[in-house]
Design goal:
7-stranded mixed sheet, 51% strand, 121 residues, mainly beta
Length: 121
């Protein structure tokens, strides 16, 4: 059974940093992608970043490029999102999700429960 468990959210001031983690287990696919997706208050889901397990290619939402970094540990069991220079619009619940390689994030079949990030002074 696939499990994705996020952690690392919290309250941070504008300009600050946070590192989100997602502990992954139970994967049976050998080829997949992992993504971070967020949902701001009163808004829909927004894709933030993805990484392909096989080739480690990374992809970012334009508004977070240069500030956020997605990574996967060597054991391929923990996904990270390092978030620097956070802005108030970064306030959201952040979810990690996994799907077969080549599928779009909205079609991912495994999702974590989310972790709250609040950017406020």
């Amino acid at each position: 059974q696939v499990q994705l468990v996020e952690s690392g959210g919290g309250l941070v001031q504008p300009g600050g940093s946070l590192r989100l983690s997602c502990a992954a287990s139970g994967f049976t696919r050998s080829s997949y992608s992992l993504s971070w997706v967020r949902q701001a208050p009163g808004k829909g889901l927004e894709w933030v970043s993805s990484i392909d397990r096989n080739n480690s290619n990374t992809y970012y939402l334009d508004s977070v490029k240069g500030r956020f970094t997605i990574s996967l540990d060597n054991a391929k069991t923990t996904l990270y999102l390092q978030m620097n220079s956070l802005k108030s619009e970064g306030t959201a619940v952040y979810y990690c999700a996994q799907g077969a390689f080549g599928t779009t994030w909205s079609e991912y079949d495994y999702w974590g429960q989310g972790t709250q990030v609040t950017v406020s002074s």
